[in-house]
Automatic annotation (TrEMBL):
Keyword hit for S-adenosyl-L-methionine: yes
PANTHER family named in the record: METHYLTRANSFERASE, UBIQUINONE BIOSYNTHESIS O-METHYLTRANSFERASE, MITOCHONDRIAL
Gene3D superfamilies reported in the protein's UniProt record: Vaccinia Virus protein VP39
SUPFAM superfamilies listed in its UniProt record: S-adenosyl-L-methionine-dependent methyltransferases
Gene Ontology MF terms: methyltransferase activity
Limits of the Methyltransferase domain: 42-140
UniProt-listed Pfam families: Methyltransf_25 (PF13649)
Coiled-coil ranges (or none): none
Record keywords: Methyltransferase, S-adenosyl-L-methionine, Transferase
Protein name, entry field: Methyltransferase domain-containing protein
GO BP term, example: methylation
Amino acid sequence: MCSIEQYYNHDYDEWARLLRHRIEFEITKRALSKFIPEKASVLDVGGGPGRYSIYLAERGHEVTLFDLCEKMVEQATENAKSAGVVLKDCIQGNVLSLCDILPGREFDAILCMGPMYHLLKEDERREAINQCMGLLKKDGILIVSFISAYAPIIDCLKAYPQDIGKLKDSLLRYLEDGRHDSRVAQGFTDAYFFNPADIRGFMSQFKLETLRIMAVESLGVLVEEKLMQLPEEDFQSWLDVFEAVASNPEVWGSCEHLLYIGRKVD
């Protein structure tokens, strides 16, 4: 079992994470609703315990969930049942073998919201996108999620600013080399943090028309807990603000997650 499977199968509650980080969840749902056509066939690669798969199934899409970790697939199956929705499939497998595992399948939209977090090698990150492209219909929508190289700095500011003396060099290093090796740095499993400025160039390698690159948490990331205590109307108004400025590159360094949204052109 690799470190990533160990982390999500045994060490971390991914289902609860998006309750704690509601800005990420709500802004991402807005993006999915805007860019995925009605009654689409959707493949959720790295779908974890099914938060977004269930959201899309509730809105009439035919959703197949795919994840590396056995526990995540089992949880997604149970969570879908609890939500009263049907997922077409819940499949365990590695994104690097996606086309072999799902031969002959095609999808109107593919979410790749997880794999880019955990592939340390450049060629594996390219291959993950190529695998998704191989199953995406012409004119289909690809949505890819990235963890920002600024995320470790933001986390340190929020949770343990007193540790900056010992962490300063490693935090700055992520901006040059986004690799986080769990064998030498604790706190997270193997991960890759993208410099936001590099996302457009990376995704330009593929036959995609870029529709949007956006900061997910945007300017709210450092005060998220405070915002979640506001009345719902005020919280939604802040989401409107964050969504409005999300595509401004000057905002991308402020957030922990970014979304790339593109359309397959060939």
